[in-house]
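User: Teach me something about this protein's shape.
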Amino acid sequence: MSIDGICLHALTYELNQKLSESHIKKIAQPEKEELILTASKERETFRLLISSLASLPVIYLTSENKTSPMTAPNFCMILRKYLNSGKITSVKQVGLERVLDFEIEHLNELGDPAKKHLYVEIMGKHSNIILCDEENTILDSIKHVNAFVSSVREVLPNRPYFVPAQKDHMDAFSVTKEDFYNILLKKPLPMKKMILSSLIGFGPVMAEELCYRANIDSDVSVLSLSDWQKDKLYEEFCNLINDMTNHSYTPTVILKNNKLFEVYPFALTHYKELENKTFSSMSEALEFFYATKNLKNNMEQRSYDLRKQIQTILDRNRKKLLIQEKQLKDTLSMDKYKLYGELLTANAYQISSGIKKVSLLNYYDNTNVEIPLDETLSAMENANKYYTKYNKLKRTKEALDTYMEETKKAISHLEMILSSLSTAESEEDLTQIRQELFEYGFTKKRPATKKGQHKKSAPLHFVTSDGYHIYVGKNNYQNEEVTFKIATGNDWWFHSKTIPGSHVIVKANNEELPDHIFELAASLAGYYSTGRDQDKIEIDYTQKKHLKKVAGAAPGYVIYHTNYSIIVSPEKRDVTLC
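Assistant: First, the predicted structure itself:
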């Protein structure tokens, strides 16, 4: 889901209400393309998160703070130079474009009043944060865009700032009834495409919603509409504009199969069958929707090199296993060579020299076997040649059995490590994964372990509404911890069947668990596994006393012979993170 102009219109009203006349107290850049502005007004403090990340651009007020780097990036330093202690006089939206304009008053180097504009563009891969002076000349931006990247507009210091015009698009607030009937409803396009290509600020969600409210198929041609349908469409369009003008918003997050699906400032009737969760403000809705996505996105970026490294090692081991399997297949002929040697030895006295093959009776099954011979060798020399081949293949098979077992264990271990990347939530989690790769010989580079540089990463700890404590390991070391240090004999252990995933422990307190706790814990085990995106997943569960650790095995590796199984939907629900 991407934020459209209508979403920003609702957010602009909220930001203007709260931030107008506030003073900027702190500017931080915790991520490469993310800012947090802290402002205060009438003894109330606000934090504004602005992200220009191409895959997840967003802006909202938040109560959360983030750790900033020791050395502030250049763009952050420039913002501090001009905007620290500045007053936000207004927050405006540029038309219905996905652009916000923060007008900020401050004192310049001479102590004279000055004005700056901080433009926030929420435009997918073109998202940016741009600082301009009063004449809209760019001072700097969080992303520089030169002529080689964009032929439409350069975003560089000393260049003029402007918002590129959308050809043939109209501002929804300025559309008259005549415009609607004589321009929009005259276009030979499907309904949804006509709205998207004609009205600024309308995204696919509201285009679909407007058609649904008017009881019109979004794929039907505009030219095929009846007069009644045209009137109904215009009526719903006017209702929407009135709601936006009067700021009658109902910020809503829509969930599909318990997963975040859409966020919008209005209730979406074409999704009325799905779960709808309403919020008191647009910022709350956006934070609820994007905070988890943003965390996951940031971790994916941070772990990209590590994931690539693990995948390379994993692919190398899989390729090695294929070669070993091919070599093992070649050893299947060793018993044939042994038989040839035995038969040639037993019948050497009757085999003539100088022949290329001989047919001999196989005394194991009374069938004749044709044996190729080297005509330059005697029967016994041919027999010894076959025995030599047999012994060589036998030694190869014995070695391959050991090597293949080691390769399979390495692959299984690496798959578990790779799966733990998807549950990593902090740099400390990534450090533990790097440490495991080093300790088990997958890499030669020891991770940084300077005192105080990384705090120890702990397993996830949840509590259910009825007071049961659940622990989830985010990597193999934590799986080891929750299973063999946190869990006791009668506690219950859950794990996805046959696929990599986290160990989930439910503290039973020597009591019998309610049925819904088994289902909830199994759902968590599915959610924190590589099968998270499946509709259903099979989970094994047993008491901790039935688990055994294999000596020399990877951390978190256990075996068990007594267990139950349950099929659940992988999801995180009805638990509170401690």
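Now, about its shape. The chain has a mean pLDDT of 91. The two ends are 29 Å apart (CA to CA). If you'd like, I can walk through any region in more detail.
User: That's plenty for now, thanks!
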